[in-house]
Specification:
single chain; mainly alpha; globular
Length: 296
């Protein structure tokens, strides 16, 4: 039905905007001296606590089947790796540029779905993807300075694991609610974050020592984690993996808006054209998806 497709696209757009706010909280906590691992630990732990309380309050219970537990473990590993590599990239490149480069993941999703599952890439979908990638290319070239190989490799690893996450959510046919699924994803991701921190020689997460740090950690837990992942799960189930991924074009736009308004970055004509192309891509995708049956 049109209503379900519209809700799915709306959820995908909202998820993208929420996820695009990652750099705001991360850079604020980096400025306070926290490592990427510690920032992610608090993001995951606080989000898991909030979601667990929500699941309990709704009376859903925490029981899951063995298969659902296995899928959640895979999703937790994928999302943890995606988060670690993405947040690490903020240390070696501009965060806004990292967000723009991350948007290669819709192309990865489309390729995975076409090669592994035989999904047909329509002309409208291809056109939307081409417009979005062209816009992202303009955004990338809009900045000054070069991008190191390390930064690019980190963002590409993050994009690939995030693409796989979206595909698994869509293809797993889980009956879990979005809140319960996200709760278990974060729960399984936490041990990987702690293991990575231990591997780097840090025995425990650095403490949050001020109210400001606690507020930024809560923002990261709620907006780009609880809200983004829950909305993304709704979108992937209702409209499919590829449309959900293409709506992610709004992630770099959010990062760009934060860069201009918070960090005082310039907004050049090249950036304006990139924004217009991305908005056009999302509009084309919305119209095309509304006219065809919902994805399985």
């Amino acid at each position: 039905m049109f209503g379900e497709r519209f809700q799915g696209l709306s959820a995908g757009i909202a998820a993208a905007v929420c996820y695009g706010m990652n750099p705001l909280g991360a850079k604020a906590l980096y400025a306070e001296g926290l490592s990427a691992d510690s920032v992610l630990f608090y993001r995951y732990a606080l989000a898991a606590l909030l979601l667990g309380a929500w699941v309990a309050a709704r009376g859903e219970g925490f029981a899951v089947s063995r298969r659902e537990m296995g899928v959640a473990a895979v999703l937790g590993a994928l999302f943890a790796v995606s988060s670690l590599t993405f947040f690490a990239s903020f240390r070696v490149m501009d965060s806004g540029l990292a967000c723009t480069l991350l948007f290669v993941y819709p192309a990865m999703v489309a390729g995975i779905m076409a090669l592994c599952f035989g999904e047909r890439l329509t002309w409208a979908m291809g056109g939307a993807l081409a417009l979005a990638l062209a816009g992202i290319g303009l955004l990338c070239r809009g900045g000054e300075g070069g991008v190191g190989a390390t930064g690019v490799a980190l963002v590409m690893a993050s994009a690939l694991t995030y693409a796989l996450y979206i595909v698994v959510v869509n293809r797993a046919r889980l009956t879990l609610s979005a809140a319960k699924l996200t709760f278990y994803v974060l729960l399984f991701g936490l041990p990987l974050l702690l293991a990575h921190e231990w591997f780097l020689g840090q025995a425990a997460p650095q403490p949050l020592t001020s109210p400001t740090m606690i507020l930024w950690a809560l923002m990261l837990a709620i907006v780009p984690t609880v809200l983004s992942l829950s909305l993304m799960a709704v979108a992937a189930r209702r409209v499919g993996s590829t449309p959900t991924a293409v709506t992610g074009a709004l992630e770099p736009l959010t990062a760009l808006a934060i860069g201009v308004t918070v960090f005082g970055e310039t907004f050049s004509p090249r950036l304006a054209l990139g924004v217009a192309l991305i908005v056009g891509a999302v509009t084309l995708l919305t119209l095309a998806t509304a006219r065809r049956p919902a994805a399985a």
